[in-house]
């Protein structure tokens, strides 16, 4: 019994694996650098990423994943849009939230969170038996420390208050919802553009919260699947990435 991709997936995989064609197309295309590079209006400071892969041979959601990312950014130039790299992720307008951070958010991030994943963090990712949650945290500016941090939070309709307590500090930060006007994707340049209802202000920090879903293909691109045969002759699947 072989459980593999359907016909549509096979077509995608064959096209994606034609490396020679991809190289030739890349060398021949004349694309302005402005379309390839992200705008310099915002700069990422910190991110937290959760990925929830499903490897259930008999489940209808087999070889799919859901995820969530929270990105803290600093606005370098006033703008009404946020542009991110994107590729084959299902994201709707309701999956994106933007918050303005007040005063102490950057201070609380000087000690990266080390608490375990909570139901509040997962949000609407869903729960599945026998699956593994992958968690990644990145930082382009801050230094990781060994200090233990615990987090508790409450939420109301308008303002989210996150209280962070550590051995050396206790800070509070307000996350004030920022209007999202529209969301669009560019499949040619692999970009996700988020239009905001109000301009992001220079010098201010914002948090972008995005939920997403996608397919786990076997074309060695992004989050992909592979397999091996165990000692009993049974096929075992696993998920990996170049991240």
From TrEMBL:
Pfam families: Peptidase_M1_N (PF17900). InterPro entries: Aminopeptidase_N-like_N, Aminopeptidase_N-like_N_sf, Peptidase_M1_aminopeptidases. It comes from the Eukaryota. One of its GO terms (biological process) is peptide catabolic process. GO terms for cellular component: cytoplasm; extracellular space; membrane. Gene3D superfamilies: tricorn interacting facor f3 domain (2.60.40.1730). Residues 44-103, 154-243 form the Aminopeptidase N-like N-terminal domain. One of its GO terms (molecular function) is zinc ion binding. PANTHER family: PROTEASE M1 ZINC METALLOPROTEASE, THYROTROPIN-RELEASING HORMONE-DEGRADING ECTOENZYME. This is Aminopeptidase N-like N-terminal domain-containing protein. The lineage of its organism: Eukaryota, Metazoa, Ecdysozoa, Arthropoda, Hexapoda.
């Amino acid at each position: 019994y072989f459980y593999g991709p359907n016909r549509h997936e096979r077509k995608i995989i064959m096209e994606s694996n034609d490396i020679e064609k991809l190289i030739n197309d890349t060398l021949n295309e004349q694309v302005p650098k402005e379309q390839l590079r992200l705008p310099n209006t915002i700069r990422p400071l910190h991110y937290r990423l959760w990925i929830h892969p499903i490897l259930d041979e008999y489940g209808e959601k087999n070889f799919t994943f859901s995820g969530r990312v929270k990105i803290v950014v600093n606005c370098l130039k006033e703008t009404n849009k946020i542009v991110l790299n994107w590729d084959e992720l299902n994201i709707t307008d309701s999956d994106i939230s933007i918050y303005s951070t007040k005063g102490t958010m950057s201070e609380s991030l000087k000690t990266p969170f080390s608490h375990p994943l909570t139901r509040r963090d997962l949000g609407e990712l869903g729960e599945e038996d026998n699956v593994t949650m992958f968690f990644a945290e990145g930082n382009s500016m801050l230094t990781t420390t060994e200090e233990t941090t615990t987090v508790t939070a409450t939420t109301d309709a308008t303002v989210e208050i996150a209280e962070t307590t550590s051995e050396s500090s206790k800070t509070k930060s307000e996350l004030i919802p920022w209007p999202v006007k529209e969301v669009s994707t560019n499949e040619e340049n692999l970009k996700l553009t988020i239009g905001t209802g109000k301009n992001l202000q220079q010098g201010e920090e914002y948090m972008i919260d995005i939920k997403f879903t996608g397919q786990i293909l076997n074309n060695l691109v992004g989050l992909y699947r592979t397999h091996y045969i165990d000692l009993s002759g049974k096929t075992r699947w696993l998920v990996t990435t170049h991240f």
